[in-house]
Amino acid sequence: MQPAGGSPSRGALLITVDSLRADALGPHTPTLRGLARRGTAFETAIAGGNWTPFSFPDLLGARPVFADASTPGPATDPTLAEALSAAGVRTAGVNAGNGFLTAHYGYDRGFDEFESFLDGARTPVGRFLTTHPTVNGWVQYFGWPLGNAAAKLRGRERRHAVDTSHLHALEREAFDTVDSVAADEEPFFLWIHYMDAHTPYVPAPRHVRAVTDGEVGSLQTLLGHLRAGLGREVSDDTLRTLRALYDASVRQIDESVERVLEELEAAGLREETTVVLAGDHGEEFLEHGHLAHYPKLYDELVRVPLVVDHPGAPARREPAPVPLRDVPPTVCAALGVEPPAAFAGESLLPTVADAEPPDRGPVTSLAVRGESVTSQPIPRRLGDGTPLVAARTSRWSYLRGGDGQVRVFDRDADPGETEPVDRSAVPEATRAELRRATEDRLALLSDGSAAGNGNADAEDGDGAEAAPDAIERRLEALGYR
Hints:
This protein has 15 helices and 17 strands. It is α/β, with parallel strands linked by helices.
């Protein structure tokens, strides 16, 4: 198969960033903004759900979450990596410690090389620091002078005071893959997943100073962490500090992506590589009453950056809504691989290379809510709560709750989705299309629930073995109990 717009790329680099809001790319992210200006920026890219386990079946799998099981993870159909590997593409995946993106949940399938940095610490102190990344960050920060002096005595250089997100280990794995594929003629696929923008936001202090012009120092950072961590009512000052920490974390990612792209350039592969950038979901800063990414489906949680930079394709911006499940067939097409028939998405390469407008109809997202928005543990399975589904067009947001209640927002007049409108305000044909999209998504859930509940006697009662301790500790560190 030859993709639209010319010959296949030699390689594909998929960069995913946890919790990356659509508005996260700003003056503090010159590399990511430069990538968006160079490629095709999809301005209304919609995640499959409000958090990683519900969004990544779209990004690396074949079909949406719960398509054939009541538990999260890729469907049994071939994943993106499996499809590419079967076509002779060398595959490597590096996940910076997200417990949901591990072999336990099936995300290693199809990767020749796969690293998720979940071996676990070997000492009680190490395990404590792994489970408490905020404390870990402060220990690293205050221990920096001593550690730096010790490194100099050994003839080494320590450039970074804080690294709680495996960022530099991720880079080393990515560099090794780039250097290895540069030595042969194999097509390649490299996936890297960053965790810095996920709570609890522990960027290196220099990034905080950079995004705030020095107005937020170490004391404000510590107080912001303490006040949010203790569950106190978040003041305006604390909210500004938390958003500054988030922006600083994204800036930290931006610098890392720059180093990875420079490595591709040095290896002579940059102009032969399709680069895809995507957030897996967004992040809330009290727009609808909460922090982080609890089970809701507003724009701040499901609209994310999506950029496709394909060699030889012109730069452009595309406003039409597209789902993240278009990423796997797009990567396949960029590498000249026929996407498996099971892939639910469609390639975006005709839009990227030939400016063909995407025509996807309403794009849907899913959440599962317990007794309350903030109930813990956050439901991971269909049986743990009530499904919520949303459908979006370029103008309308159609949110259907578990009780069947429907709220509609006109984003042209109300981009913050704060004031529902009467459904009669929506043109009848569009309203019917939105309703069908949500019903179709719920019908798929019904089929998946029936398929996935056949093993009710499994160890953790969800049709799968209980997650290993190392994964549970990592998920606890991310705020998931």
